[in-house]
Amino acid sequence: MDPKQYASFFAEQGYLVLSDLLDKSAVDTSHQEIDRLHQIALRLLDNDQLNGSDYQLEPYAKTDRTDDKPVLRKIENTRSHSPWFSTLASHRPLVSVIQSLLGEDLLLFRSTLMLKPAHHGSAHAFHQDSAYWPMDPPSLITVSIALEDAIPENGCIKVIPGSHRGELQTWGHIAQEEHAPLTERKEVDLSGQIDVPLTAGSAVLFHSKLVHGSGANRTDKSRNTALYAYFSPDVRYKPGPNAPQRRSFPVIAGMNGATEHEMVAG
Ligand SMILES: O=C(O)CCC(=O)C(=O)O
After folding, report:
1. Atom of ligand 1 nearest to the CA of 114
2. Domain containing 16: what range?
3. Tell me, what CATH number does 176's domain have?
4. Which residue among 77, 122, 142, 144 is best mutated to probe the pocket of ligand 1, counting the most ligand atoms within 8 A of its Cβ?
5. Is position 264 within any domain?
6. CB 114 less than 6 A from any atom of ligand 1
7. What is the chain's alpha carbon radius of gyration, rounded to the nearest angstrom?
8. Domain count, the chain
9. What atom of ligand 1 comes closest to residue 227's alpha carbon?
10. pTM of the predicted model, to two decimals?
11. What is the pLDDT of residues 128-157, one digit of tens each?
12. pLDDT digits over 151-192, tens only?
């Protein structure tokens, strides 16, 4: 697809698959880095310091560690914990596609590793990201880069194509037990849902109003993804009254070469 086709597919469907975004060496480096971050998490767990950190345990796992590895659901703010995952947010081929959809100036809202450990990885109920984010208008783009082959059995992402053109709705808790339905909301029409299987190194982009989720990991291997959310500086920061009223966002591209951009609530 050329950039024009990307833009029209994304506008219509609200998601876009980028095949082979990372080569094998980048995928291998990501695995090594994930192992290193698990060692850090293990030390935090042993010292009772994991709670309240950017490392989150699987809420429904039967144990907090297996094979001397903590059973983690996700790691937030990876750009602060890992030079590798910080650099990956600016991966040139990825940034070019995001720029073709959002414009030249790009800020980073989120850098996260979504981890689905073997047998433990919980499901993610259907939701729209913008229902949880203090950003307006709700037009951010997330990329989820598969670091292993992602298939329905290990909880690949599911999307409802075109759902980003509907209203923003109120959703419940995202993390769900393995056999829980992916939504309790009877009024949500799930008939159009599709799985988005990806090979390791491929990625899916999705609009922050797109209804999406993922099943549990029922296999004996982990299913990990590197996830980044980007936005244009036209999007405003609108936090609730109890949240910090100023927030600084990393610049990924443009913005006259600045490295950080502070936004004041409003
Ligand atoms: O990685 C997944 O399984 C789902 C991620 C997701 O839904 C999200 O971060 O909004």
Report:
1. 1
2. 3-230
3. 2.60.120.620
4. 144
5. no
6. yes
7. 18
8. 1
9. 9
10. 0.96
11. 999 999 999 999 999 999 999 999 999 999
12. 999 999 999 999 999 999 988 888 887 777 788 888 888 899
